[in-house]
């Protein structure tokens, strides 16, 4: 623990100071970027704590300390992308292991499990609906090694009962992994609910400015310490390290995470309520936001999320053609994949993020051709509402 960081400080304070001290050499208030790949040693086994940047880098070390603090983890590793963090976590498993995964996971995680690791590591993956406790209970076997889920899920924003999933995993000694990308530790703290490992695509809210790819895996202090040791060993063994310039950018972004998340959440709540009030006039057949009382798991969301995040999904009347037209016509919501940046985005999951899924699977999940997903940014809410009003009321 450094002088400026204390675990008694509020999240907002820790986002700025955790793990960080002015540079002892120069007094710089911001962590320097150490691009060196190698570090001198004074003699055999004698160095200043660093030897080679893959196994440890001073800028990355500060970032990892800050990330661990914010997530309430004992260890966090900073990886070049969210998917590299996910791959590193999957390396914890023995070949042939049984994994139970949420059916509505991020498309890239589905691809990694189903098209890569089931072949290269023989993983046996059961995809089930984690929003239905009975399905999770039935899918967990005595030999299940890992349960992998997201909440709220993408793009349908289904809310998973985290404590229930943890209970099911503990019954058989399996590890739980929660992809917390949609929430960030500001909105939801899975490790405090008993989850073993949180993963992030830090590309999204943690960085928040759509100018970086980054990933994180963070291990709970209540999990067998061997898991944290092993994840660090695996990061070095597979080379899944974030480069120092990216580390510095992410460290800066984390300082405004609470400010951004607060605005993302209040904007999204206001927009969801506005869309709901005008649902018929706007031709919205289905509107999904966990902060609306109409969300089937609103009560659960209230229990386990401190804020409902920035993601809103909606099915529009008029099929794919109208969905496409709406996305093209919005002025402030850019028509692009990804999420979590300060700028608002709109995307069409069936042809973009979820195009990797076979069409029957998309239909079964409810990722329909007329579904649009909004990532609400931090612009002024009145401008975002005016943009939605003019497009949704104008396109029949
Ligand atoms: C984007 C995303 C990922 C993948 O992360 P990358 O940084 O793109 O590799 C994983 N999970 C979720 C929920 C995501 O949104």
TrEMBL record:
Give the superkingdom in one word: Bacteria
- Asked if the keyword Transferase belongs to this entry, the reply reads yes
GO MF, one annotated term = cystathionine gamma-synthase activity
Q: Which SUPFAM superfamilies does this UniProt record tie to the protein?
A: PLP-dependent transferases
* InterPro entries in alphabetical order: Cys/Met-Metab_PyrdxlP-dep_enz, Cys_met_metab_PP, PyrdxlP-dep_Trfase, PyrdxlP-dep_Trfase_major, PyrdxlP-dep_Trfase_small
Q: Does the keyword Membrane apply?
A: no
Q: Which UniProt keywords apply?
A: Pyridoxal phosphate, Transferase
**Cofactor(s) the record lists:** pyridoxal 5'-phosphate
**What EC identifiers does the entry list?**
2.5.1.48
Q: What does the sequence similarity comment in the record state about its family?
A: Belongs to the trans-sulfuration enzymes family.
Q: What is this protein called?
A: Methionine biosynthesis PLP-dependent protein
Organism of provenance: Parasedimentitalea denitrificans
